[in-house]
Amino acid sequence: MANPPLKIGLALGGGGARGLAHIWAIKAIEELGLKVDLLAGTSIGAVIAAAHASGINGDDIAGYIDENMANAGKIAGQIFSASASELVDLLNPFQPALVNGLKLIQILMPDTFASDFNELKIPLKVMTTNFYEGGEHIITSGDLKLAVAASMAIPAVFSPVIIGQQVYIDGAYANPVPYSAILDECNFSIAINVNGRPMKDKPTKTKLKITAKSKARALEEAKRMQVPNSRDVLYASNQLMQNAIMAEKLKLSAPNIYIDAPIDQFKVMDFHKAKDILRATEPMKDELKRKIAAYLDV
Q: Among 121, 84, 76, 111, which residue's Cα sits nearest to residue 100?
């Protein structure tokens, strides 16, 4: 009896700027002469997955990021050239501004990024979290950019997204690396985790003359630098929670290949370090190619 045709599923996880590393997974598959048959994405993973599902190959996604995302000044210009009332929902002394994720996607994404699921070249599942009902919610039809905005709606950063009568936030709060959404429909599954772990900042060197008093001050400063600020605590606590979620999910089921990208040194909003992220994570392309080749004997 003949083996069933190969059907490759690729699940891309959440992690903010660290998710730019997902490009290497797409390039690895393409360089082996293979193609993805089903995509699933959470948060930044949904952005990259939607771009590829729109028909944009790995090289073109990388080129777009190199040209646009790495230029912090250009990003700021694009954002702030938009109407403040369009981009920011609220701004007052008692409640921080929340960025409208849909407007941000419309501003930053290339023109070839599809607007609706029915325009996609590859089937896509976008992972979100239903805020009031709890648990994951997968979107597979309708307004693509709205679905992606819901998937990347990090609390306290992006506005929650309303679709129909439901309120959605970042899909990573329910399913950080959504390989479970592809297992039943594919006979070869790949999942990429770009969540990472919090890292301590490196202590700065002091130029003080070394005395007992200055040494004590330097030690106190070094200790203080290991205490994260409130913003870093917010983002890093999400990392810890999502790592715990994935540890439990992996006990229940696992994809054929699961890769943890080497991105611990980068933070969730480090989009201005796009080139550094891509450079640091490039080795995962060859790692994935070796694992795919070994598994499929290609």
A: 84
CA distance 266 to 221: 23
Identify whether the C-beta of residue 167 lies closer than 8 Å to the C-beta of residue 132: yes
First to last CA, the chain: 21
- Is 186 in contact with 38 (CB distance < 8 Å)? yes
CA distance 171 to 242: 10
Please compute Rg for the chain using Cα positions: 20
pTM of the model: 0.85
Using DSSP bridges, classify how beta strands 161-163 and 136-139 pair: parallel, antiparallel or unpaired.
unpaired
- Cα 127 to chain centroid distance, Å, stands at 12
Torsion region of 196: left, alpha or beta (phi above 0 gives left; psi -120 to 50 gives alpha): left
Q: How far apart are CA 290 and CA 276, in angstroms?
A: 23
Ranges in the chain, pLDDT < 50: 73, 76-77, 79-96, 204-208
Residues 31-55: b if buried by 16+ CB within 10 A, e if exposed: eeeeebbbbbbbbbbbbbbbbbbbe
Contacts of 47 (CB under 8 A, 6+ apart): 19, 41, 105, 109, 148, 152
